[in-house]
Amino acid sequence: MNVENQGMKESDVCNAIGWGLIVLGVISGFIFILVFGRVEVPKTYYGTETVWSGIMVITGIGIIFNGFLIGYLFQKIASILRNHENKRD
Prior knowledge:
- It is a single chain.
- This protein is mainly alpha-helical.
- Helix content is about 70%, strand content about 10%.
- The protein is built from two helices and two strands.
- Helix 1 runs antiparallel to helix 2.
- The mean pLDDT is about 90.
């Protein structure tokens, strides 16, 4: 298979996957915070009130950070692949 017939290079695919993972991590983290971040707690005398749960917000931030970390690692792998592709050409 010739180089002209190939679509994307491995480094380009890996870079796109990295960006996709970063975006997916940010979106899923914000959705997690919005869905599970608010909890109902009993008031002092009667009824309930809705407050932000610190644990759930920190968990959502952890999901966002994890998406950034995994995406960054994929982009570093893409950088190494791009370096090897440039040496080969």
